[in-house]
Amino acid sequence: MDCILHHFDISPFAEKVRLVFGLKGLAWQSVQIPVVMPKPDLVALTGGYRKTPVLQIGADIYCDTQRIAVELEQRYPARTLFPQGSKGLCLALANWSDAAFFQPGAGLSMGTNADLPEAILRDRREFFNFIDFAALPDELPHLYARFKAQLQLLETMLADGRDYLLGGQPSWADILGYFPVWMCRGNIRGGDTLLAAFPRVLAWEPRIAGLGHGERSELDAEAALASAREQHSIAEVLVLGEAVPGLAAGMPVAVTPEDYGAVPVAGELVRLTHEDIAVRRTDPRAGEVVVHFPRVGYRVEKA
Fold first, then answer.
1. What pLDDT does residue 125 have?
2. Which of 31, 47, 50 is nearest to 287 (CA)?
3. Could you tell me the residue ranges of all domains in the chain?
4. What is the pLDDT of residues 145-176, one digit of tens each?
5. pLDDT band for position 282 (50/70/90)?
6. Rounded Cα gap, residues 185 and 191, in angstroms
7. Rounded to an integer, what is the distance from CA 291 to the centroid of its chain?
8. 44-97 residue pLDDT tens
9. Which residue from 56, 39, 45, 68 is spatially nearest to 2, judged by alpha carbons?
10. Can you tell me the distance from the alpha carbon of 40 to that of 34, in angstroms, rounded to the nearest whole number?
11. In this structure, are strands 215-218 and 60-63 parallel, antiparallel, or unpaired?
């Protein structure tokens, strides 16, 4: 089945998944979604989840780049994202890159990029609850310091001259470390000067960019919705009782991100393990789909 990525080109989080396609040499279809709400075609698939990107494979809808990365690794294990048994380490690094690294970078982008349209700024003021927009002008020096501290961590990871963060092969860890650097280029005032202070990061950066984006083709949203309607989920029903006591397969539940963009997605529980959550839902435009999330970072409870 085809991989369909719902994204927009300037999304740093979507760049993570595009690089996975490149590392694995995969063909995929691109559906461009609006940068700001409303996103009616996307929400028809996800049931409310509004973050970017979302991966669609048939009638299975994968939310969050962590869940997307794991699914692509399972389906396409060649050119692994997790060399030398590094899956746990790589997944654990996501909290570092998504919070400690990305969030000050996002604040700098919001506070220093004069080219951002007002519609994006207005949308992100509501969306990014980790940024105090009223205090942002005074916070910029602190945000620069926080961002530079994460760049120094990258520099330290590469201090022994290795080509990639885990050694001789690119991995999900490299993509996690790279996407805030990608955001820094052109989106943060003085970003090039910031990066110039870290020579090993500068040498590593083009190696990750060189992974490319695989083989991309364009698809319109209506065709993607039709693909979901015409196919069936391959999700295996599995609900572990100890994961969240009191929940069982088929029960109506809501799944909500624990950080920002906390819009609940309601559906019938299909999967609940220590690694993933999935719910089945029906939409007039998308048909019956199963929406997948990682376990870490999401709250699941009775609807």
1. 86
2. 47
3. 3-79+216-302, 86-209
4. 999 999 999 999 999 999 999 999 999 999 99
5. very high
6. 6
7. 15
8. 999 999 999 999 999 999 999 999 999 999 999 999 999 999 999 999 999 999
9. 56
10. 9
11. unpaired
Rounded to whole angstroms, how far apart are CA atoms 96 and 280?
A: 31
Q: What is the 3-state secondary structure (H, E, C) of the chain?
A: CCEEEEECCCCHHHHHHHHHHHHHCCEEEEEECCCCCCCHHHHHHHCCCCCCCEEEECCEEEECHHHHHHHHHHHCCCCCCCHHHCHHHHHHHHHHHHHHHHHHHHHHHHHHCCCCCHHHHHHHHHHCCCCCHHHHHHHHHHHHHHHHHHHHHHHHHCCCCCCECCECCCCHHHHHHHHHHHHHHHHCCCHHHHHHCCHHHHHHHHHHHCCCCCEEEECCHHHHHHHHHHCCCCCCCEECCCCCCCCCCCCEEEEEECCCCCCCEEEEEEEECCCEEEEEEEECCCEEEEEEEECCCEEEEEC
If we measure between CA atoms, which residue out of 53, 56, 58, 71 comes closest to residue 17?
53
How far is residue 28 from each of residues 19, 41, 100, 115, measured CA to CA in Å? 12, 19, 30, 30
71, 234 in Cβ contact below 8 A? no
Cα distance between residue 20 and residue 14, in whole Å? 10
Q: Taking the domain 86-209, which CATH number applies?
A: 1.20.1050.10
**Residue whose tokens read 């461009």:** 32
Overall fold of domain 3-79+216-302: Glutaredoxin (3.40.30)
Distance of CA 119 to the CA centre of its chain: 22
pLDDT digits (tens, 9 = 90+) for 180-190: 999 999 899 99
Report how far residue 7's alpha carbon sits from residue 200's, in angstroms, rounded to the nearest whole number.
Answer: 30
Distances (CA, A) of 276 to 37, 176, 252, 295, 299: 27, 20, 17, 4, 11
Distance separating alpha carbons of residues 20 and 74, to the nearest angstrom: 13
Q: Both tokens of residue 111?
A: 């506070």
If we measure between CA atoms, which residue out of 16, 18, 24, 19 comes closest to residue 79?
24
